[in-house]
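Per reviewer request, we include the raw input and output of the structure prediction for the construct analysed in the revised manuscript.
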Amino acid sequence: SRETHYARVIRAGQVDGVLVVTGNVPRDEEFVSVPDTVPMSLMFSEIPGTEQFSVFDDDNRGASTEAVRYLIAQGHRRIAHIPGAEGGLEANERLGGYCDALREAGLPVDEALIWRGASNFDFASGDRAARDFFALADKPTAVFAAADEIALGFMRALKNGGVSIPGDVSVIGFDDTEYAVHYDPALTTMRQPRTEMGRLAAADLLRRMASARDGSPSTSKVRLPCELVVRESVRRMG
């Protein structure tokens, strides 16, 4: 309903440009098919099958590969993954990066270690994934969560169940949200370049708004690298 409302605002000519900041792909057809005379820039997620929008995103797959490579470099060989909501573009790319790193290291991709019960990038999804952890006889030594909120919900549930982090299991997240550094232990994670992404997206939108009167200004597609932030939630094996 919110997408429909905003689409109508755009169609009514009430704005000169739109910056969409979301990890969710708009589903409303009115929103997806807004006139390309109104410049729009998307942050964090593209809309598949569309060309009229500029897109500014992370290299989610490459960053996830780097996160799992780090766990492997610390001696971990049995590594689980908690994806985000099934079917989401970000979740799929981060799952792909997890699989890439395992295959690169000659390690199997074990479906029993991919816990798909997440409904979103939220704390509750991490709490649900903890049940999968406790149900396994042969538990992983490390877990890569597709978002910090998932990782922190997972860690809280494990700690409540008497599991030590990183003593019994290491955990790495994705995003570097404000909570990550304040949790105990502080969360190792992949930092998204939010400030730079926002600056580039806003500059692109202003450029296209300024040149819209001359026709359809060219769009931009930019993918930025993430940064590994090493904290206390991962230990070296052996």
